[in-house]
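agent> call fold_tool(seq_1)
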Amino acid sequence: MVSRSVTSPPKVRIANNKNLADNIQGGGYTVATDPAHLTFASVLVENANAAGKDLGVLFLAYTLAPHACYPRQLQQGVEMLRYTLDELDRSPTNIMIGGDSAGKCVL
């Protein structure tokens, strides 16, 4: 289930945020999320919310190689977007999709 693959930075309540940034990690499909990314996301959310913008962040912790080979990470990225649209009931106009390195190649 995709919800097991989705994490959020501390102090963020996904269900209460109108706007969501779906973020997909880099690392060549072999390296787990760097804690610095979670810290950056927390600061981003705090600054956006302080400026009156209602923002939350979802992180996809996709299955790393060698336990899964590409395109499994792509499939998990699609599942995350579907989860955001369907389960969290967000409009496409309220979703930002981003990532770095291999993460941006997923979507």
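agent> call fold_tool(seq_2)
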Amino acid sequence: MLPTQYLRVKETVRLLTPNALKAGLPMSAASNQTVVLGRDAIGRILRQEDARFLVVVGPCSIHDTGAALEYAAKLNQLRQELAGRRRYRVPRSHRAAVHRGPGELGRRWRPHD
């Protein structure tokens, strides 16, 4: 039989494990505080212990690092402009799953999850 799979794969590169990625990109104290406080706020809103309206905004996927940083800066500016209103905004972005098959690079945007 003739080969039918992976015909255009030039090389396979082993990806870092999540633990190795976390070790190489340690979370700052400020980032940690943002994540912890954000998760706590979302939990209180979902349990109806906080009257704010949860707004999840964002594209369906991000594959360009520059565009992702620009988008995050714009959301941060909007967050500052709307501070004090009865809404809690959460940025959403899809992270492509890490694929194990040859030719699939995959990407993880938030290694500290």
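agent> summarizing second result for user.
Residues 99-113 have pLDDT under 50 and may be disordered. The beta strands are 53-57, 87-91.
agent> awaiting next instruction.
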